[in-house]
Amino acid sequence: MFVVVTYDVGEKRVNRVRKKLKMYLTWTQNSVFEGEITEAKLKKCLAELDAMLIKCEDSLYIYRVKNSNNIKKDILGELKNYDDLFV
Amino acid sequence: MFVVVTYDVGEKRVNRVRKKLKMYLTWTQNSVFEGEITEAKLKKCLAELDAMLIKCEDSLYIYRVKNSNNIKKDILGELKNYDDLFV
């Protein structure tokens, strides 16, 4: 399964959230992670993230696409490699 | 067609980019727009945005899903309504 995860998380928690997402997915844009993942691993990842978030301030959107052939990604501008950044 | 557009754009240009995206899609998270759009309208929108971006600094990711049944969105934390914000 292919997932795109976007986040809007308070400054105090954002590094912890990024570190956790980096364990499971690829960091492709400042507020975006994506990649292939199993349902079981995604469930584990989201349970771990759920414990980190302050629900009334933070949000994480998880877009699941069962078959990656059903999603097409295009880029305008620069393709950055956030995954090499240290968090 | 359903699209998710994520952006990472320099501060000086971000309001213009948001205004343009709001003309075509729904602002659902700080760096995310999404919605149903025709290929022709998306092409027009992206051409207009292309002229605004500084290619070596900004990036826009466009995820196209032909049938919205192929994508499932879940939310952790708060569902904000960015679309009511003035930009």
Question: How is this structure best described in words?
Answer:
Two copies of one chain form a homodimer. Chain A has two helices and five strands, in the order βαββαββ. Chain A is of the alpha+beta class. Chain A has one domain: Alpha-Beta Plaits. In chain A, strands 2-3-1-4 form a four-stranded antiparallel β-sheet, covered by helices on one side. Chain A is globular and about 35 Å long. At the A-B interface, β1, α2, β4 and β5 of A face β1, α2, β4 and β5 of B. β5 of chain A pairs antiparallel with β4 of chain B.
Describe the protein's topology:
The structure is a homodimer of 87-residue chains.
Chain A (H helix, E strand, L loop, with lengths): L1 E7 L2 H12 L3 E4 L2 E5 L2 H12 L8 E7 L5 E7 L10
Antiparallel strand pairs in A: 1-3, 1-4, 2-3
Cofactor (chains A, B): Mg(2+)
Pfam family, one (chains A, B): CRISPR_Cas2
Organism (chains A, B): Clostridium magnum DSM 2767
From the alpha carbons, calculate the radius of gyration of chain A and give it in angstroms. 13 Å
> Largest chain-chain contact?
A-B, 38 and 38 residues
Distance between the termini of chain A: 26 Å
The SS-based structural class of chain A is alpha+beta
Q: How many H/I helices of chain A?
A: 2
Instruction: Name the average pLDDT of chain A.
Output: 93
Tell me the CATH architecture of chain A. 2-Layer Sandwich
**What oligomeric arrangement do these chains adopt?**
homodimer
Protein name (chains A, B): CRISPR-associated endoribonuclease Cas2
Family (chains A, B): Belongs to the CRISPR-associated endoribonuclease Cas2 protein family.
Organism (chains A, B): Clostridium magnum DSM 2767
Subunit structure (chains A, B): Homodimer, forms a heterotetramer with a Cas1 homodimer.
